[in-house]
Amino acid sequence: MTEAGDTVRAEARFGVAFLRRHGLLLLLVFLGVLIPLAGFGMLAHELREGEGFFFDVPLLEAAHALARAGPDRFFVVVAALGYQWGVVPLDAALVVTLGWRRRMREGLFAGVAIIGSALLNLGAKPLFARDRPSLWESIAPEGNYSFPSGHAMGSMTLACVLVLLCWWTRLRWPVCGAAIVFVALVGASRVYLGVHYPSDILAGWAAAIAWTYAVYGMVFRAGTRPWGGTGVRRDGA
């Protein structure tokens, strides 16, 4: 009994010391998964109920009112960069480069986050089977389902992966700024082109954030950082 009690007390001391050192990090990871997951759940529930979203049509109409030759060309290019011309090649290059540099943990994180996000999107679209907007004939039509947006999920996943990999480096804020601008432009392009409802974009962003944070928490456990950094001592203090 005494030995068992000593073991329990040792585990308790280790746990308290660990939480003191890394409790804030655990809380941030928890909230980083919970908040976007709750947002996606709310959007999915409303869609399942068939009630729609009050902001979808007004925002689509406002975007269409801006249609001109210049913005048309710009957003067609942005949409292409948000998938086949930009995100997909960058995804592949990132994973290959990390593997080539023997950054196995970082490469595992990027690969699982990116591939898993794509599979989640492919699985979710037929599950919800939401038709594309049909308010006008798009200059860049799409043929599959609308919810959640694959462009939004793909661009946000890549952005989150890069931000999390760079978070403990001097590149943190430049990468954050570039990621925010890129993700926002890709999302706006899909609404401007009339191929997604704004709620599709929000759902794609939420799902990507929740998934990427969850993978990050599994690959880089509390106290472990990308690029080999760690804040955990062997005694857990």
Describe the structure concisely for a colleague:
Helices cover 71% and strands 0% of the residues. The protein has eight helices and no strands.
Topology summary:
Elements: H1 2-49, H2 56-64, H3 69-81, H4 87-100, H5 104-128, H6 150-166, H7 172-192, H8 198-219
GO molecular function, one term: undecaprenyl-diphosphatase activity
Enzyme class: hydrolase
Membrane topology: Multi-pass membrane protein
What does this structure look like?
Keywords: Cell membrane, Hydrolase, Membrane, Transmembrane, Transmembrane helix. Its EC number is 3.6.1.27. Residues 107-216 form the Phosphatidic acid phosphatase type 2/haloperoxidase domain. The chain has helices spanning 2-49, 56-64, 69-81, 87-100, 104-128, 150-166, 172-192, 198-219. The protein is globular and about 75 Å long. It is an all-alpha fold and 237 residues long. The model is unreliable at 231-237 (pLDDT under 50). The two termini are 26 Å apart. The protein is built from eight helices and no strands. The protein has one domain (13-228): Vanadium-containing Chloroperoxidase, domain 1. Helix 1 (2-49) packs antiparallel against helix 8 and helix 3 crosses helix 7 (172-192).
Rg from Cα: 21 Å
- Helix content percent band: over 70%
Low-confidence stretches: 231-237
The CATH architecture category equals Up-down Bundle
According to DSSP, the number of beta strands is 0
**Overall pLDDT score:** 83
Class based on secondary structure composition and strand pairing: mainly alpha
Please summarize the sheet with the most strands: none
Q: Into how many domains do the coordinates divide?
A: 1
CATH fold name:
Vanadium-containing Chloroperoxidase, domain 1
Under CATH at level 1, the class stands as Mainly Alpha
Order of helices and strands: HHHHHHHH
* Mass-distribution shape: globular
The fraction of residues assigned to DSSP E strands is under 5%
CA(first)-CA(last) distance: 26 Å
**Helical element count?**
8
Transmembrane segments: 23-44, 74-96, 108-129, 149-168, 175-195, 201-220
Membrane topology: Multi-pass membrane protein
Catalytic activity: di-trans,octa-cis-undecaprenyl diphosphate + H2O = di-trans,octa-cis-undecaprenyl phosphate + phosphate + H(+)
Subcellular location: Cell membrane
